[in-house]
């Protein structure tokens, strides 16, 4: 087997795709949305493997898990079962050949010396496709399991920046170094082997002002929460202005989408409504409350609809329609400044092949996707 050249940059190559595509969160017991509608989707390694191989074979660029340590209750006990992300992504790295295997890490619970070596290991296993999605931890009950509390909002990304500085030094420096910081005091640090990539890509899902500032300085990809196209365009413009000033002009913007694509618009809309009608409102409320939303501030008569929106993935964009309509909606997101899209399906193994067969060719015709040659 041919070994990759050290210092290669697979991500920069993928970044030439007008719209990169990826899969997010198939390491958890719920697929997309918080609902009770049956699906063949399940949390098992065989199922995960099938989705990863499918995405890889189709020619997607990104694959990323959710980092979750406990669920949110309700009838569905949403996200109660999850695979740990480093072990999961090491396995995904070993069985895929193309997708970037980006590991979502809760930074407060993973020491940077451990993370630097673990991600370098995954970079070797994947032959240069490792990466980190930096998550700071906001779910109190989750952090409590580690004897920690979430960092105060103003400190989260100060911690993140220091954590990342240590990791990047470990990835690049050949002589042992000491680190005397606010959060870490470390002696004689060294990590070998170095990653294959010159620098495994960094992803951020920060939404707060300080978080977005952090992402604009340090991230290769940062998430946008979807609140309409105008908001997205504005967010994209601001992000790129700040990122340019921070010396990180190539930062990419990524959205998460829930895709309901059927032969006709009527069929797609009917299924989307079915998902929404069967939302698990208790789990949705728990998630909203835990993430700091004051649900009781929403007028009583509007609360149910609000929780149904949360259940259909707050901040994600719902793409619903026929193949042509879905392709047009993806093109609109691209025109609004989105460079990458994580696709979520209610039933991946049924719906992803349909998407690949019917939507991808249209995206290629439109110039929103370049034809993919499967990288070895
Ligand atoms: C697409 C997406 C994925 C996320 N994945 C996780 C995750 O796996 N685990 C987690 O605890 N938080 C996750 N988050 C939460 C973010 O890391 C972040 O804390 C949140 O967006 C609030 O931003 P802030 O930290 O700037 O306040 C995710 C957010 C988004 C938008």
What does this structure look like?
With 376 residues, this protein is α/β, with parallel strands linked by helices. It has one domain (10-366): Luciferase-like domain (TIM Barrel, Alpha-Beta Barrel). It is 43% helix and 15% strand. It is globular. The relative contact order is 0.16. The mean pLDDT is 94. Residues 66-68, 104, 135-139, 156, 205-208, 211, 223, 225, 256, 315 line the site of flavin mononucleotide.
What coarse outline follows from CA principal-axis ratios? globular
> Which ranges are low-confidence, i.e. pLDDT below 50, for 5 or more consecutive residues?
none
Element-by-element helix/strand order: HEHEHEHEHHEEEHEHEHHHEHEHH
Give the strand order, joined by hyphens, for the main sheet. Answer: 1-2-3-4-7-8-9-11
What percent of residues are in strands?
A: 5-15%
Please state the structural category: alpha/beta
Sheet with most strands: 8 strands, parallel, barrel
Q: What is the class in the CATH system?
A: Alpha Beta
User: Roughly how many Å apart are the termini?
Assistant: 10 Å
Radius of gyration, in Å, reads 20 Å
> How much helical structure, as a percent, in the residues?
40-55%
CATH architecture: Alpha-Beta Barrel
């Amino acid at each position: 087997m041919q070994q990759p050249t050290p210092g290669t940059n697979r991500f920069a190559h993928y970044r030439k795709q007008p719209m990169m595509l990826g899969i997010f969160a198939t390491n958890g017991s719920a697929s997309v949305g918080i609902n009770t509608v049956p699906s063949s989707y399940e949390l098992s390694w065989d199922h995960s493997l099938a989705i990863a191989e499918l995405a890889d074979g189709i020619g997607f660029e990104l694959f990323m898990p959710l980092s979750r340590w406990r669920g949110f209750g309700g009838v569905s006990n949403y996200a109660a079962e999850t695979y740990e992300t480093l072990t999961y992504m090491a396995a995904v790295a070993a069985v895929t050949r193309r997708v970037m295997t980006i590991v979502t890490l809760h930074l407060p619970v993973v020491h940077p010396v451990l993370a630097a070596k673990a991600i370098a290991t995954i970079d070797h296993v994947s032959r240069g496709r490792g990466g980190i999605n930096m998550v700071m931890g906001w779910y109190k009950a989750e952090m409590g399991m580690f004897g920690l509390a979430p960092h105060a909002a103003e400190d989260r990304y100060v911690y993140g920046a220091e954590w990342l500085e240590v990791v990047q030094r470990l990835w690049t420096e050949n002589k042992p170094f000491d680190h005397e910081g606010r959060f870490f005091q470390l002696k004689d640090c060294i990590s070998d082997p170095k990653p294959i990539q010159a620098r495994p890509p960094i992803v951020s899902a920060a939404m707060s002002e300080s978080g977005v500032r952090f992402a604009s300085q340090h991230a290769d990809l940062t998430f946008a929460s979807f609140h309409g196209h105008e908001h997205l365009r504005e967010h994209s413009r601001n992000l790129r202005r700040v990122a340019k000033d921070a010396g990180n002009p190539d930062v990419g913007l990524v959205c998460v989408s829930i895709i309901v694509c059927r032969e006709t618009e009527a069929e797609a809309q009917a299924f989307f409504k079915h998902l929404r009608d069967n939302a698990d409102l208790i789990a949705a409320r728990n998630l909203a409350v835990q993430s700091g939303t004051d649900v009781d501030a929403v007028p009583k008569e509007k609360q149910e609809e609000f929780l149904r929106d949360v259940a259909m993935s707050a901040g994600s964009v719902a793409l619903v329609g026929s193949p042509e309509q879905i392709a047009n909606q993806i093109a609109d997101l691209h025109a609004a400044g989105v460079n990458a899209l994580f696709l979520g399906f209610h039933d991946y193994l049924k719906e992803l092949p349909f998407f690949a067969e019917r939507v991808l060719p249209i995206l290629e015709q439109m110039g929103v996707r370049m034809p993919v040659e499967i990288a070895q």
